[in-house]
Amino acid sequence: MAEDSESERVLGGRFSGVQSELLEAINASIDFDKRLWRQDIAASLAHCQMLEHVGILSASDASSIREGLAAIQSELECGEFRFSASLEDIHMNIEMRLTELIGEAGGRLHTARSRNDQVATDFRLWVRERCDAALTGLGELMQALLAQAEAGADMVMPGFTHLQAAQPVTWGHHMMAYVEMFGRDRGRFRDCRSRMNESPLGAAALAGTSFPVDRHMTADILGFDRPMGNSIDAVSDRDFALEYLAAAATTSAHLSRLAEEIVLWSSHQFAFAKLGDSFTTGSSIMPQKRNPDAAELVRAKTGRVNGALIGLLTVIKGLPLAYSKDLQEDKEQVFDAADSLKLSLAAMTGMLAGLRPDAARLNEAARGSYATATDLADWLVRETGLPFREAHATVSRLVLAADRKGTGLEGLTLAELREICSGITEQAQDVLDTRKSVESRLSYGGTAPVRVKEQIQIWKEKLACEPV
Ligand code: ARG
To answer: Whose CA is nearest to atom 2 of ligand 1?
Structure first.
């Protein structure tokens, strides 16, 4: 088989006989790690530059390597590169092609490196890029949330606990809760990005190399802060990918909560908000349907991301140092999780841009759900000196009376109110107003529109000075 002899040329002549097709099937990673080609070429160029600089490679070999890699890059870019499964992975595919193109000099590129430090470097570079993409995607999502918050800073809606209407809040306040969550998610991506930004290149197979390499130089060229301090750790560590996945899983959980709310809100029963037509699907049988498919899928994609995190934790658990082939199973799930995250962030941003809250319906839902009961209890405490526990009991009797009458608390007459609690005056009826209720919650971080607008301003400034 032609391909077997190819692989022999790279790995050396120790192997006689034909590799089992099953070995090739289980061993080859090219079908998925071809996604690392850009990083592989960038790392090879850095390695080549360093080898030339320290005198391991001649200037002419280095220059043909550069030319060869440039040619391979264009083949890859225009889809002309022929991948071979018998060459296992992207590293050997590129190296083999290089030697095919430039001859002997191609074989010198692998001096003082191993696929172990090569793959660790490529993968780190890839995950680092995805951290940056997540930061950008989250930034855009936060902008969309800020726009919703600004438009709805005065829009009263019921706030929920246990999915029971609890107290009136504003749409803006609710949106800003997500801004806080996604802001922390950005912090997590930033943290793991800065921790992962060390270069494994030059760790070679595991022990380092006897060649006089300059690891600081390659680290520098590739934008890493420094070389990793322990070559064994450098080739066996995948916690950078774990941290990325943990941050991605947390973000996905947040996206899923928001998606769940959009699904609820856009239902006929809640009717709190409408999704734009561009994010709504119809039903093939029920003409009235406006299905929130994108929100449902964002909610569901969380499963893939969580799965990837558990998957990688399981691959790494129990692996002896340093490199084991198990580590090849680190990539596919990270790729899938990163794709899911990118798509979910973009879809959520798109949905939010067209989401139209129904101000009248939101306020009506807040008014019709005894959401101002706590305001009345607070009023009794403040104005009549009743202990809060007693005020609580009194208001719950009032709620019962209103319920029997089939109305909200504001539907009880003053006489009816005073029948149950003689201390109540006309003034108390004021606090039953949902708008007055939200306006009164002026505590820091509270739902009062002035407070929410302050927070919107703070976040706008934050996002403006730290775009990523
Ligand atoms: N394809 C391998 C991976 O993804 C590259 C490293 C192979 N190293 C080795 N010693 N066989 O992990």
So the answer is: 328
Nearest-atom number in ligand 1 for the CA of 88 is: 1
Judge contact between 326 and 236, C-beta under 8 A: no
Report d(CA 56, CA 264) in Å as an integer: 64
| Among the listed residues 105, 102, 109, 100, the one whose alpha carbon sits nearest the alpha carbon of residue 5 | 100
Q: Which amino acid is at 298?
A: V
What is the amino acid identity at position 134?
A: A
Report residue 351 as tokens.
């949905």
Substitution site in 84, 119, 316, 324 for ligand 1 pocket (most atoms within 8 Å of beta carbon): 119
313 contacts 243 by C-beta, under 8 angstroms: no
Q: Name the CA radius of gyration of the chain, rounded.
A: 31
- Nearest ligand 1 atom to the CA of 205 is 10
Q: Please, which pLDDT band fits residue 3 given cuts at 50, 70 and 90?
A: very low
* CB 241 near ligand 1, within 6 Å: no
Does residue 33 have its Cβ closer than 6 Å to ligand 1? yes
Buried b (16+ CB within 10 A) or exposed e, 165-191: bbbbbbbbbbbbebbebbbebbebbbe
Show which residues are catalytic: 162, 283
The first and second tokens of residue 15, run together, are 């192997």
Q: Which pair of tokens denotes residue 8? A: 């022999």
* Minimal-distance CA residue to ligand 1 atom 10: 116
pLDDT range class, residue 1, cuts 50, 70, 90: very low
Give the CB-side neighbour count of residue 144, counting CA atoms within 13 A: 20
Q: Is residue 204 in contact with ligand 1, taking CB distance under 6 Å? A: no
Ligand 1 midpoint to CA 316 (Å)? 15
Q: Which two tokens stand for residue 373?
A: 């009961």
323 CB near ligand 1 (under 6 Å): yes
Ligand 1 centre distance from Cα of residue 207 (Å): 16
Is 212 a residue whose pLDDT tops 70? yes
What CA–CA distance (Å, rounded) separates 118 from 115? 5
Q: E strands along 50-178, which residues?
A: 156-161, 164-170
Q: Is the pLDDT of residue 8 over 60?
A: no
β-strands 273-274, 198-199 pairing: unpaired
What's the pTM? 0.92
Token duo for residue 4: 């077997």
Cross-strand partners of 159: 167
Q: By alpha-carbon position, which residue is closest to atom 11 of ligand 1?
A: 325
